[in-house]
Design a protein that fits this description.
Blueprint: E1 15-17, E2 22-24, E3 29-33, H1 44-52, E4 57-63, E5 75-80, E6 84-85, E7 88-89, E8 103-109, E9 112-117, E10 122-127, E11 132-135, E12 140-145, E13 151-156, H2 165-171, E14 175-179, E15 185-189
Antiparallel strand pairs: 1-2, 3-4, 4-5, 5-13, 6-7, 8-11, 8-13, 9-10, 9-12, 14-15
The structure holds 5-phospho-D-arabinohydroxamic acid (PAN) and zinc ion (ZN).
Zinc ion (ZN) is lined by residues 95, 97, 103, 141, 157.
Length: 196
Amino acid sequence: MTEYAIQPVPPMSIRFDAGAATLSPEGPTLTRRMSDLEGLFRDGDAWRTAVADGDPVVYSVVSSPVPELDRELPQSITTIEAGSTGGEFWMTKGHQHPNHQGEIYLGVAGVGGLLMFDGTDTRWLDMAPGVIGYIPPGWAHRSVNVGDAPYSFLAVYPGGAGHDYGWVLEHGMGRRVLADAAGGHRFVDCRTGEPA
Ligand code: PAN
Ligand code: ZN
Protein backbone atom coordinates (compact mmCIF):
# COMPACT_ATOMS: atom_id res chain seq x y z
CA MET A 1 0.00 0.00 0.00
CA THR A 2 1.18 3.51 -0.78
CA GLU A 3 2.07 5.54 2.30
CA TYR A 4 0.32 8.89 2.48
CA ALA A 5 1.68 11.80 4.46
CA ILE A 6 -0.79 13.34 6.90
CA GLN A 7 -0.79 16.87 5.52
CA PRO A 8 -3.38 19.47 4.53
CA VAL A 9 -4.64 19.42 0.95
CA PRO A 10 -5.61 22.39 -1.26
CA PRO A 11 -9.22 22.99 -2.35
CA MET A 12 -10.00 20.04 -4.56
CA SER A 13 -12.75 18.15 -6.32
CA ILE A 14 -13.16 14.48 -5.54
CA ARG A 15 -14.97 12.25 -7.98
CA PHE A 16 -17.59 10.09 -6.29
CA ASP A 17 -18.57 7.02 -8.33
CA ALA A 18 -21.64 5.54 -6.66
CA GLY A 19 -21.75 2.55 -9.02
CA ALA A 20 -18.18 1.51 -8.33
CA ALA A 21 -18.23 2.82 -4.72
CA THR A 22 -14.94 4.64 -5.27
CA LEU A 23 -13.42 8.06 -4.60
CA SER A 24 -10.87 9.58 -6.96
CA PRO A 25 -8.23 10.64 -6.21
CA GLU A 26 -7.89 8.00 -3.57
CA GLY A 27 -6.09 8.21 -0.26
CA PRO A 28 -5.45 5.37 2.18
CA THR A 29 -7.38 2.11 1.85
CA LEU A 30 -8.04 -0.17 4.79
CA THR A 31 -9.05 -3.84 4.57
CA ARG A 32 -10.52 -5.68 7.53
CA ARG A 33 -10.48 -9.45 7.50
CA MET A 34 -12.32 -11.76 9.84
CA SER A 35 -9.17 -12.11 11.97
CA ASP A 36 -9.31 -8.34 12.63
CA LEU A 37 -12.73 -8.73 14.28
CA GLU A 38 -11.70 -10.70 17.35
CA GLY A 39 -14.10 -10.48 20.27
CA LEU A 40 -16.95 -8.96 18.28
CA PHE A 41 -19.12 -11.90 17.19
CA ARG A 42 -21.40 -13.59 19.70
CA ASP A 43 -20.25 -17.05 18.58
CA GLY A 44 -16.49 -17.19 19.17
CA ASP A 45 -16.21 -20.74 17.78
CA ALA A 46 -17.89 -19.72 14.52
CA TRP A 47 -15.53 -16.72 14.33
CA ARG A 48 -12.44 -18.97 14.82
CA THR A 49 -13.72 -21.37 12.17
CA ALA A 50 -14.19 -18.50 9.71
CA VAL A 51 -10.65 -17.24 10.41
CA ALA A 52 -9.23 -20.73 9.85
CA ASP A 53 -11.40 -21.23 6.78
CA GLY A 54 -9.79 -18.58 4.55
CA ASP A 55 -10.00 -15.52 6.81
CA PRO A 56 -12.30 -13.64 4.38
CA VAL A 57 -12.31 -9.90 3.82
CA VAL A 58 -15.33 -8.58 5.73
CA TYR A 59 -15.06 -4.91 4.77
CA SER A 60 -12.85 -2.30 3.19
CA VAL A 61 -12.64 1.46 3.60
CA VAL A 62 -11.36 3.71 0.80
CA SER A 63 -10.64 7.32 1.68
CA SER A 64 -10.10 10.53 -0.25
CA PRO A 65 -6.77 12.31 0.28
CA VAL A 66 -8.32 14.70 2.85
CA PRO A 67 -6.35 13.94 6.02
CA GLU A 68 -7.56 13.06 9.48
CA LEU A 69 -6.50 16.37 10.98
CA ASP A 70 -8.43 18.68 13.28
CA ARG A 71 -10.87 20.98 11.39
CA GLU A 72 -10.56 18.96 8.15
CA LEU A 73 -13.55 16.96 6.86
CA PRO A 74 -12.30 13.60 5.55
CA GLN A 75 -14.54 11.29 3.56
CA SER A 76 -14.45 7.55 3.02
CA ILE A 77 -16.52 4.79 1.45
CA THR A 78 -16.94 1.59 3.42
CA THR A 79 -18.03 -1.58 1.63
CA ILE A 80 -19.17 -4.49 3.81
CA GLU A 81 -19.37 -7.85 2.04
CA ALA A 82 -22.53 -9.93 2.40
CA GLY A 83 -22.29 -12.73 4.92
CA SER A 84 -22.96 -13.94 8.42
CA THR A 85 -20.94 -15.78 11.05
CA GLY A 86 -22.75 -17.87 13.63
CA GLY A 87 -25.99 -16.33 12.35
CA GLU A 88 -24.75 -12.77 12.97
CA PHE A 89 -24.57 -10.44 9.99
CA TRP A 90 -21.16 -9.12 8.92
CA MET A 91 -20.42 -5.72 10.38
CA THR A 92 -17.78 -3.11 11.05
CA LYS A 93 -15.86 -3.15 14.32
CA GLY A 94 -17.69 -0.05 15.49
CA HIS A 95 -16.19 2.80 17.46
CA GLN A 96 -16.82 5.86 19.57
CA HIS A 97 -15.33 9.24 18.67
CA PRO A 98 -13.36 10.14 21.81
CA ASN A 99 -14.28 13.82 21.52
CA HIS A 100 -17.92 12.92 20.86
CA GLN A 101 -18.00 14.50 17.43
CA GLY A 102 -20.88 13.81 15.03
CA GLU A 103 -20.75 12.21 11.60
CA ILE A 104 -22.93 11.67 8.52
CA TYR A 105 -23.28 8.55 6.42
CA LEU A 106 -24.91 8.33 2.99
CA GLY A 107 -26.11 4.96 1.70
CA VAL A 108 -24.55 4.21 -1.71
CA ALA A 109 -25.32 0.57 -2.59
CA GLY A 110 -26.98 -2.45 -1.02
CA VAL A 111 -28.99 -2.57 2.17
CA GLY A 112 -27.64 -2.28 5.66
CA GLY A 113 -28.12 -0.50 8.89
CA LEU A 114 -26.51 1.88 11.28
CA LEU A 115 -26.45 0.63 14.86
CA MET A 116 -25.78 3.31 17.48
CA PHE A 117 -25.28 3.09 21.23
CA ASP A 118 -24.71 5.89 23.74
CA GLY A 119 -24.01 3.58 26.67
CA THR A 120 -27.70 3.40 27.59
CA ASP A 121 -29.93 3.61 24.53
CA THR A 122 -29.54 1.67 21.28
CA ARG A 123 -30.85 2.91 17.93
CA TRP A 124 -31.03 1.33 14.49
CA LEU A 125 -31.39 3.19 11.21
CA ASP A 126 -32.23 1.28 8.02
CA MET A 127 -29.77 2.33 5.34
CA ALA A 128 -30.13 2.13 1.56
CA PRO A 129 -28.93 4.19 -1.41
CA GLY A 130 -29.88 7.85 -0.94
CA VAL A 131 -30.51 7.62 2.81
CA ILE A 132 -28.48 9.88 5.09
CA GLY A 133 -27.86 8.47 8.54
CA TYR A 134 -26.95 11.06 11.14
CA ILE A 135 -24.72 10.06 14.05
CA PRO A 136 -25.07 12.65 16.82
CA PRO A 137 -22.17 13.43 19.17
CA GLY A 138 -21.64 10.73 21.79
CA TRP A 139 -23.15 7.79 19.92
CA ALA A 140 -20.85 4.86 19.17
CA HIS A 141 -21.61 3.48 15.71
CA ARG A 142 -21.37 0.23 13.79
CA SER A 143 -22.58 -0.62 10.28
CA VAL A 144 -24.14 -3.95 9.37
CA ASN A 145 -24.85 -5.51 5.97
CA VAL A 146 -28.27 -7.19 6.22
CA GLY A 147 -28.60 -7.93 2.49
CA ASP A 148 -27.22 -10.50 0.08
CA ALA A 149 -24.99 -8.06 -1.86
CA PRO A 150 -22.21 -5.70 -0.74
CA TYR A 151 -23.43 -2.72 1.29
CA SER A 152 -21.57 0.56 0.69
CA PHE A 153 -21.88 3.97 2.30
CA LEU A 154 -20.07 7.28 2.23
CA ALA A 155 -18.94 8.75 5.56
CA VAL A 156 -18.01 12.39 6.22
CA TYR A 157 -16.54 13.13 9.62
CA PRO A 158 -14.45 15.67 11.53
CA GLY A 159 -10.76 15.01 10.96
CA GLY A 160 -10.01 15.26 14.66
CA ALA A 161 -12.76 12.86 15.70
CA GLY A 162 -10.51 9.87 16.40
CA HIS A 163 -11.66 6.24 16.58
CA ASP A 164 -11.95 4.50 19.94
CA TYR A 165 -12.46 0.78 19.28
CA GLY A 166 -11.81 -0.21 22.89
CA TRP A 167 -15.02 1.54 23.97
CA VAL A 168 -17.10 -0.88 21.88
CA LEU A 169 -15.18 -3.93 23.12
CA GLU A 170 -15.85 -2.78 26.67
CA HIS A 171 -19.46 -1.58 26.36
CA GLY A 172 -20.80 -3.47 23.35
CA MET A 173 -23.39 -1.91 21.06
CA GLY A 174 -26.51 -2.75 23.04
CA ARG A 175 -27.89 -5.06 20.37
CA ARG A 176 -26.73 -7.72 17.96
CA VAL A 177 -28.11 -8.12 14.44
CA LEU A 178 -28.92 -11.71 13.54
CA ALA A 179 -30.33 -13.41 10.47
CA ASP A 180 -33.93 -14.55 10.91
CA ALA A 181 -35.60 -17.62 9.43
CA ALA A 182 -37.46 -15.58 6.79
CA GLY A 183 -34.27 -14.13 5.27
CA GLY A 184 -34.51 -10.83 7.12
CA HIS A 185 -32.85 -9.62 10.27
CA ARG A 186 -33.75 -9.52 13.94
CA PHE A 187 -32.24 -7.92 17.02
CA VAL A 188 -31.18 -9.44 20.30
CA ASP A 189 -30.02 -7.73 23.47
CA CYS A 190 -26.21 -7.97 23.79
CA ARG A 191 -26.28 -9.01 27.41
CA THR A 192 -29.36 -11.19 27.71
CA GLY A 193 -29.61 -12.61 24.19
CA GLU A 194 -33.37 -11.91 24.35
CA PRO A 195 -35.21 -10.32 21.40
CA ALA A 196 -34.71 -6.54 21.46
C1 PAN B 1 -16.36 5.21 9.23
C2 PAN B 1 -15.78 3.89 9.77
C3 PAN B 1 -15.77 2.77 8.75
C4 PAN B 1 -15.18 1.46 9.30
O1 PAN B 1 -15.55 5.74 8.23
O2 PAN B 1 -14.49 4.13 10.26
O3 PAN B 1 -17.08 2.50 8.33
O4 PAN B 1 -15.74 1.14 10.55
P1 PAN B 1 -14.80 0.94 11.81
O5 PAN B 1 -13.94 2.19 11.89
O6 PAN B 1 -15.71 0.81 12.97
O7 PAN B 1 -13.94 -0.27 11.55
C5 PAN B 1 -16.49 6.15 10.41
O8 PAN B 1 -17.43 6.03 11.17
N1 PAN B 1 -15.53 7.05 10.60
O9 PAN B 1 -15.57 7.89 11.67
ZN1 ZN C 1 -17.11 7.29 13.02
